[in-house]
Amino acid sequence: MSNKKDSFGTSYSLHKINEKDPIVFIHGVGLNKEIWDPQIKFFKDYNTLTYDLMGHGKTPLKKSKISFDDFTKQLLRLIKELKFNKIHLVGFSLGALIARHFAAEHSDKLKSLIIHGSIYKRNEEQKRVVMNRFEVAKMKRPASKQNAIRRWLSENFIKKNPETYKKIYSILDKNKPLDFLKCYEIFVNYIDDDNMLKKINVNTLITTGENDVGSTPEMSRNLSKTIRGSKFIEIKKGKHLCSIEYADDVNITFKKFIDRDND
Questions:
Q1: Taking a C-beta distance cutoff of 8 angstroms, is the pair 165, 148 a contact?
Q2: Alpha helices (runs of H) in 33-93, residue ranges in sequence order
Q3: Confidence (pLDDT) at 2
Q4: What are phi and psi of 5, to 5 degrees?
Q5: Per-residue pLDDT tens for 187-205?
Q6: For residues 101 and 71, is the Cβ–Cβ distance under 8 A?
Q7: Do 245 and 157 meet the contact criterion of CB atoms below 8 Å apart?
Q8: DSSP label at residue 46
Q9: How many C-beta atoms lie closer than 10 Å to residue 114's C-beta?
Q10: 239: left (phi over 0), alpha (psi -120 to 50) or beta
Q11: For strand 2-5 and strand 48-51, is the pairing parallel, antiparallel, or unpaired?
Q12: Angle at Cα 140 formed by Cα 219 and Cα 153, nearest 5°?
């Protein structure tokens, strides 16, 4: 697994074993490419690419404001530099929104699309809750990070896996506050665009955890009705980071879908 930077400063890890189309994973806000470790290990017989979004991990954010267009261009530049004509794209949370934008503009670059743990048309109460979280995050208190992880993983899992808790907390704690807030703000204030979603023209799977309170199964079901021909699968018992807590279920679900479109 190589750990490198592209000519634009994006930190990435590439596992390449053949000339097949790679699976590219986009992480969520405040996290980094390491969050996909359970998937990278599972997909060891596939080409895989993970990278740090601008303002996350080892990728700098040099702009005073960030947009989804910036994130789309970041991914496009990376896969062009690595000479990938087509990719299987997996986006989680903020990464799911980036994947949606990328797919709407560059469906020709995609072999398949997985939208995992995505918001869609928050109601007024859901908007209020996420706005409150944003205000708490501005205070830079440890409780904000602790509460986030407890939303993302079950108490039982946290008790049994203290090292995983520490790792995720450490990732959140190492964020540069201003960069994190710039990225978090566009997630908090996101407005869904159905016209954009209707431009997506690729085999699409939409997944979320049964117990995900921020990216609910209802949101994913409704999103699936909007994206033409897409399929929705609920990850039983999962919360937001079910890709870690229920990695086996998530990995098998992803594999079955990707294998349909793998040459």
A1: no
A2: 37-42, 68-81
A3: 66
A4: -125, 140
A5: 999 999 999 999 999 999 9
A6: yes
A7: yes
A8: S
A9: 24
A10: beta
A11: unpaired
A12: 40
Two tokens at 255? Answer: 């594999």
pTM over 0.90: yes
Q: Which residues contact 105 (CB under 8 A, 6 or more apart)?
A: 72, 199
Longest CA–CA span in the chain (Å) reads 49
The per-residue DSSP string of 164-182 comes to HHHHHHHHHHTS-HHHHHH
Both tokens assigned to 181: 């807030």
* CB contact burial 30-55 (16+ within 10 A = b; e otherwise): bbbbbbbbbbbebbeebbbbbbbbbb
Instruction: With beta carbons less than 8 A apart as the criterion, state whether 15 and 29 touch.
Output: no
Starting from the edge strand earliest in sequence, which strands make up the sheet with 87-92, in order?
2-5, 11-15, 48-51, 23-26, 87-92, 110-116, 204-209, 231-235
Closest to 34 (Cα-Cα) out of 25, 42, 43: 25
- For residue 116, the model assigns a pLDDT of 98
- Residue 236 to residue 256: CA distance in whole angstroms: 17
Give the residue ranges of the chain where pLDDT is below 50. Answer: none
Question: The domain 2-260: what is its CATH number?
Answer: 3.40.50.1820
Q: Where are the domains of the chain?
A: 2-260
Task: Please choose, from the candidates 15, 50, 25, 89, the residue with its C-alpha nearest in 3D space to the C-alpha of residue 257.
Answer: 89
